[in-house]
Amino acid sequence: WDTNTEDFQFGLQRYKEFISKFGKSKVPHSYKDKDGYNLGLWFYNKKAQKKAGKLRTDREKILTDLGFPWE
Fold first, then answer.
1. In terms of DSSP H, where are the helices of the chain?
2. Are 27 and 39 in contact (CB under 8 A)?
3. Residue-wise pLDDT tens digits, 7-64
4. For the whole model, what pTM was predicted?
5. CA–CA separation, 17 vs 14, rounded Å?
């Protein structure tokens, strides 16, 4: 049981729902979904992890394929 993987997959699903609902891939920092999940924090954590060299390459590719705005 890997909570890191579970957290990533949960956030990823919410991120896909955000893109589908709003038609954009940049999540506002303070955005929380209807269930109160802080997707904005998840989104900016992924950016910070990549910048620090701590984001797994497979996850980076998944996010890039979804149009994740790294800059």
1. 3-22, 39-51, 57-65
2. yes
3. 999 999 999 999 999 999 999 999 999 999 999 999 999 999 999 999 999 999 999 9
4. 0.91
5. 5
d(CA 64, CA 55): 12
Which amino acid is it at 69?
Answer: P
CA 71 → CA 3, 10, 15, 44, 51, distances in Å? 27, 23, 17, 11, 10
The DSSP secondary-structure symbol of 67 reads T
In a 3-state reduction of DSSP, which class is residue 52? coil
User: Angle, nearest 10°, between helix axes 57-65 and 39-51?
Assistant: 120
